[in-house]
Amino acid sequence: MHLVTHKVKGSFTRSKYIFAGILDGTFGDVNEEVKKRAEQGLESDNMGIETVDLVLNVANMQKGIVKYEMKIFDLKGLVEKTISEKRVSAEAKGLKLETEIGGDTYNVLGDVFWLKEVLNNLVENSIKYTREGKITVGLSKHEKKILFYVKDTGVGVSEEDKKNLFTEGGRGKDSVKVNVDSTGYGLYSVKLIVEAHKGKVWMEPNKDGPGSTFFVELDAQ
Prior knowledge:
Layout: H1 2-23, H2 32-63, E1 71-74, H3 75-92, E2 96-101, E3 107-110, H4 112-128, E4 134-142, E5 145-152, H5 159-162, H6 173-178, H7 186-196, E6 200-205, E7 212-219
Parallel strand pairs: 2-4
Antiparallel strand pairs: 1-3, 4-5, 5-7, 6-7
């Protein structure tokens, strides 16, 4: 697995630098059509590299060789940073990105890098699978639990597809129609990371309209 994925990633990386060289003028002047194709190629290579990294991360998590650097920190700052980073891509699709975060502190014990991966994945998914409407990112505290959630007005998840969520390679029929590049590894990696933090992750269909809400529950510190 690792040998194959590293070779594939190497191929993507080499062609990525070729496309980047075309765009930055390394190979001289090119016409607009060539630039357009180079931009498409660069975007495709970046997606390929991200997919390979995701598969490698999942393989390492399954083997138990991922090292988590656990420390107590306020999850609120990480959530706000994620929202700030994703706002441009949401607004580019005409989507509203709203927040529901109180003034409390939301201390959790976790690895900042890997929990950021969880937040990124869930917010990015909502943006990808929502054609119109809004995405609401929330954070709340209930006794000794911290609850992070992402609510969207997207395609939703059918009862048939619900059982495939958070499984390796699991993809919904409706989600594939919206995002043909879906690998099904994103939510599976979220599940592995959250469980490594002794937390829970799940999805519920929205009761007040279209779309879904994804929840992550962690112990409060």
